[in-house]
Design brief:
The chain has six helices and three strands, in the order ααβααββαα. It is of the alpha+beta class. The chain has one domain: Arc Repressor Mutant, subunit A. A three-stranded antiparallel sheet has the order 1-3-2. A hairpin with a 5-residue loop joins β2 and β3. The longest helix has 15 residues. It starts with 7 loop residues before the first helix and ends in a 28-residue tail after the last helix. 16% of the residues are buried. The C terminus is likely disordered. It comes from Conexibacter stalactiti. Keywords: DNA-binding, Transcription, Transcription regulation. This is Helix-turn-helix domain-containing protein.
Length: 129
Amino acid sequence: MAYDENCPVCATAEIVCGKWTLLIIRDLADDRQRFCELERSLKGISPRTLSLRLRALEEEGMVKRETFPEVPPRVEYALTEKGRALVPLIEDMRSYGRRWLGAEGDCTPAAEDDAAVAPAVVAPPAFAA
């Protein structure tokens, strides 16, 4: 199947199918968070990967970064209206996972549970050009 940049499904998949991307959006769906909070909730993500994903989501206009003039500086991330529009997709994935895959968890961040590991969202095979 060829990648079609005019196909809405292809265009959306190009943005959200990166590893960790949907989990970042899931974690920001409830409220704004600091980098360290996201890093804690996404067990297994490297700081570099988290930084790259957040930057890509900012460039797409899905996440906004707010820096507060404090010492030390405080930075928080939040979903924009464009990013919030993906929350129903995540809710549908949660319902699908419960119904068809037997996943009964509540998808809350794993910050307090060292044994819990957030599953990685694996990108589908690259679209052929």
